[in-house]
Amino acid sequence: MAAEEAASGAPEGAGAQETLSNLLHEGRRFAPPAALAEAANVRADAYQASAADRLGFWAEQARRLHWDREWDQVLDWSGAPFARWFVGGRLNVAYNCVDRHVESGHGDQVALHFEGEPGDRRSVTYAELQREVCRAANALTELGVRAGDRVAIYMPMIPEAVVAMLACARIGAPHSVVFAAFSPGALRSRIDDAQAKVLITADGYHRRGSVVALKPNADEAVQAEGGAQSIEHVLVVRRSGQEVPWTTGRDVWWHEVTERQPDQHKAESFDSEHPLFILYTSGTTGKPKGILHTTGGYLTQVSYTHSAVFDLKPDSDVFWCTADIGWVTGHSYIVYGPLSNRATEVLYEGTPDTPNQGRFWENVDRYGVTILYTAPTAIRTFMKWGTEVPARYDLSSLRVLGSVGEPINPEAWMWYRENIGRGRCPIVDTWWQTETGGIMISPLPGVTSTKPGSAMRPLPGISAEVVDVDGNPVPNGAGGLLVLDQPWPSMLRGIWGDEERYRQTYWARFADQGYYFAGDGAKKDEDGDIWLLGRVDDIMLVSGHNISTTEVESALVSHPAVAEAAVVGAVDETTGQRIVAFVILRGGNEEVATLAEELKAHVAREIGPIAKPRQIQVVPELPKTRSGKIMRRLLKDVAEDRALGDTTTLTDASVMELISSKLPHATD
Ligand code: 6R9
Q1: 57 CA distance to ligand 1 centroid (A)?
Q2: I want to staple 462 with a disulfide (CB 3.0 to 4.6 A). Which of 47, 170, 458, 650 is the partner?
Q3: Residue 522 per-residue DSSP state
């Protein structure tokens, strides 16, 4: 393996940046398949064209959409860091995502193949979607929702969730989607912050073979005493069919109110900067931030990136993004990007292991999925389950594979390529954030020769840099902080109701240079390609060396005995921090005692002695957020023998008890 050949010890005493440059030399390259390159939506010349005239390039991308009135100015950055894109332009997002496809003769094309977890199925064409969105828009209007009013959406992954979002967009009512597995308290604080007028929810949904009730949580969030007071109506979709508590006057069945509406609705045009949605992101500390996105710039970038990065051909592709609509990935790459591009897509309600561990691959096989977009956490789970699971299915329809959410370890990247893509499909590792709205750094599947584990380059039209603490670009081969040094169309327009926090969080760190600070560490390799190294808060400082958790984790999972790894820096009197690793073993590796030593030696070989974990703890599970990101903060609490911090965003809080009980309180 090239990574092993190239591994050499980091020289003792090297500076922080030199140390980073010695980590993880990746020699493997995968050129795009010739047929894909030949017919690719975006070619190599887009990089030069966009660099020569960035605003002209974005204006050209905006013309992908239907504008009721064209803009007067592409970008107004005079109020930086508050951007205005396509100033003076007017459009309707729902019209762009639905009606115009019907008008161009594609009403019979399937927009959504819905796959319920129990196996119930329903395909919704663009013409049907148009009628449903119109009815829902009329229903919201009947309930008193006007342009500018906020609507909270607390729904499972069913077609009505997509319809609800589009109906809000159609009438200019910004939605705030709250992940259905969030608690009543989390829902309440988000409704309060946005002062939402209507809440759209469901009776319940299917998860891991059982029926989960949702309406009681919604009720608790908006109850008369101690609940969110801004809600006037709760609109309830019938999904699970279970009995629900009911508050007459406030609660309305979705089917009752939509069925009596006309299935036509005139889409009004809105200003390019009209708010489209608020999406709360928790971050590591403090109260959730309501990230605000607006209309024209957002839709332009998600539409362009969805077409460029996944090479979508609307007449032949079947796209499947496995995220939940509660996350930005679901907003941009289930709803707005794909539908604006007239994609046919899969919408799946459930989990990957219900009724068995082959469910994802069965879905790919059944619908002939050609483009799959998922997360490293899912890929590592599939690795644990073994290659024999996907091997049982016909995955020959696949042609492009995507990854998002966390750095993808080279080992997981290779596994994805070989076992899912069967060595034929380019992998696009896409870096972006709730705040960026759309993909920023990613290979282009018909252009880029990819490297396992690297997100490669900023997309045409996007500018990013890796800088040192003073804001100077680092040379190739060195590490630093990722910044975005030019505004982009789908950038957040602020934090809802908190202008100062917006400035402080993203723009204060490099105020002199005017850079957006993403909060991620990154390095540029010898070719200038970008490797994401995880959140800056997670980067460790050992004897004066900056060491990224991502790289030590990648070294650990490159050992055949390790399925998943999470690494943290714990306070240490002599070295500042010491590296503590938590690993999940692949089946059949029981000789834990000798393994710890072997893994330490393996990391030392792969990266260098400085990166060797002081402690290695075998654990049954890792703490993850509900969107699949490892919560290193909690592992750090364990490693530093401290009471655990806030665990409310964990998928499964009992995981922490298991881990805490296992860690010996000694250093070695
Ligand atoms: C889209 C999304 C954003 C944070 C981001 C970074 C991490 C996302 C990544 C990645 C490395 C990738 N992240 N994609 N890190 N490589 N391809 O996940 O948005 O939930 O706001 O998270 O996720 O740390 O800063 P969000």
Answers
A1: 25
A2: 458
A3: E
- pLDDT score at 26: 75
Residue identified by tokens 């029926």 is 211
- Cα 405 to ligand 1 centre (Å): 4
Separation between Cα atoms, residue 106 and residue 571, nearest integer Å? 60
- Beta bridge partners, 211, equal 206
The token duo for 62 is: 């905006």
Is residue 465 within a helix (H) or strand (E), and if so which, with residue range? strand 464-467
What 3-state DSSP class applies to 106?
Answer: helix
Please report, in angstroms and rounded to a whole number, the separation of the first and last CA atoms in the chain: 30
Name the nearest CA neighbour of 528 among 476, 580, 597.
Answer: 476
**For residue 449, pLDDT beyond 60:** yes
For the four alpha carbons of 513, 515, 519 and 525, in that order, the dihedral sign comes to: negative
SS3 at position 21:
helix
What's the pLDDT score for residue 593?
73
Residues with CB under 6 A from ligand 1: 281, 327-329, 404-407, 429-434, 455, 518-520, 532, 535, 627
The pLDDT value recorded for residue 284 is 52
Ligand 1 pocket mutation pick from 324, 379, 431, 551 by most atoms within 8 angstroms of CB = 431
**Taking 70 as the threshold, does the pLDDT of residue 6 lie above it?**
no
pLDDT at 662 over 70: no
Rg (alpha carbons) of the chain, rounded to whole number: 24
Residue type, 357: Q
The Å distance, Cα 385 to ligand 1 centre, comes to 25
Q: State how far the Cα of 369 lies from the Cα of 350, in Å rounded to an integer.
A: 17
Give me the pLDDT at residue 18, please.
Answer: 38
Structure tokens of 656?
């922490």
Residues of the chain by 3-state class (helix, strand, coil), percent to 5: 35, 25, 45
For residues 159 and 150, is the Cβ–Cβ distance under 8 A? no
Residues 6+ apart with CB under 8 A from 5: 27
**Contact indicator for 578, 570 with CB cutoff of 8 Å:** yes
Is a pLDDT exceeding 60 seen at residue 5? Answer: no
Question: 480-499 in b/e burial notation, b at 16+ Cβ within 10 A?
Answer: bbbbbbbbbbbbbbbbbeee
CB contact at 8 A, 87 and 71: yes
Backbone dihedral angles phi then psi of residue 201, each to the nearest 5 degrees: -145, -165
Residue 518 CA: which ligand 1 atom is closest? 25
The helix (run of H) or strand (run of E) holding residue 539 is: none
Mean pLDDT calculated for residue range 480-485: 97
pTM over cut 0.85:
yes
Q: Which residue type occupies 216?
A: P
Residue ranges of the alpha helices (H) in 80-222?
A: 93-94, 100-101, 126-142, 159-171, 184-194, 215-222
